[in-house]
Amino acid sequence: MGSRFENYVGNALRGQRNEYHIRPSCLDKGDLVVFPAIAHDGAVCEAQFFDKCRLPRKLYQARKRRIQRLKKSRNLLDEVDHDDVKIIVSRVPESSCQNCRNCRLAGTVAAPQHRYSANEFPALRRDPSESGCDNPKLPGAKMSFAEVAALHSS
């Protein structure tokens, strides 16, 4: 089912109240796919795609209760009703988004990444046959590029 909705990924989903940028899938339960989304105003959201298909009675009742809970929630942002799918967009607290291990949005709130290149540390070797530089902790040992970069980032 998730592949059915992959055409939404990277595109804008226009709701009744706002427009949402859909990110790659975070959760796929077959009849329910949850996509992380970013609202036009930058709010972190999730778009839950409920497939309109025949389901076993217990699963149907569970999905129906979930939709009702989402509609009653103060976090509800939008509801989109297509022929084969019902989409409910709700606001997600940033803390819960960061806790989701598979969520693609978790990286958007992460700490800045430090990128170093050999050009920023030109004189680490005395001659081209050596690698690294002198390690002050171990006489005669050489520090790796990563160790030197870590020293300069603090």
Structural description of this entry:
The protein has 2 domains: 108 residues, Transferase(Phosphotransferase), domain 1; 36 residues, no CATH class. Strand 3 and strand 4 form a beta hairpin. The protein is α+β, with helices and mostly antiparallel strands and 154 residues long. Helix content is 20%, strand content 27%. The strands form 2 sheets. Strands 1, 2, 3, 4, 5, 6 and 7 form a 7-stranded antiparallel β-sheet that branches. The chain is built from 3 helices and 9 strands; from the N terminus they run E-E-E-E-E-H-E-E-H-E-E-H. The chain starts with 11 loop residues before the first strand and ends with a helix.
Please give a quick description of this structure.
The protein is built from three helices and nine strands. It has 154 residues and is an alpha+beta fold. A hairpin with a 4-residue loop joins strand 1 and strand 2 (19-22).
